[in-house]
Design a protein that fits this description.
This protein has two helices and five strands, in the order H-E-E-E-E-E-H. With 102 residues, it is of the alpha+beta class. The chain has one domain. It is globular, with a radius of gyration of 24 Å. The chain binds zinc ion (ZN). The site of zinc ion (ZN) has 8 residues, from helix 2.
């Protein structure tokens, strides 16, 4: 009798947790879709992304460092806003190549 009650109680808890889990997941997915942001690694500025399109253009870098580096096979990722990009390239000895889009 005691064991049966215990089992019933446990099932109840499991169902509650499962329903809670599904609700939580739906909420997160919805929130992510509507208010996703990209954070600039240079200054911490948040750029809103609406329907997958950032409101400001950004530089996104992903680099897997190879065997002949001090970071053997590490992947580094960062995003920079336009202001931080301009500050970065201002330090270059040779300016980046540029061309106008058609
Ligand atoms: Zn920035």
């Amino acid at each position: 009798m005691y064991r049966k009650n215990e089992t019933g109680y446990n099932e109840g808890v499991t169902k509650e947790k499962l329903i809670g889990g599904i609700c939580m997941r739906r909420y997160i997915m919805k929130e992510k879709k509507e208010t996703e942001t990209i954070i600039c690694n240079g200054c911490g500025k948040e750029i809103c992304v609406t329907d997958g399109i950032p409101k400001e253009d950004m530089l996104s870098v992903e680099k897997r460092w190879g065997y002949f580096s001090g970071k053997d096979n590490e992947v580094h990722r960062f995003d920079l806003c336009e202001d931080c990009y301009d500050r970065l390239i201002a330090q270059f000895v040779i300016a980046p190549e540029t061309e106008n889009g058609e």
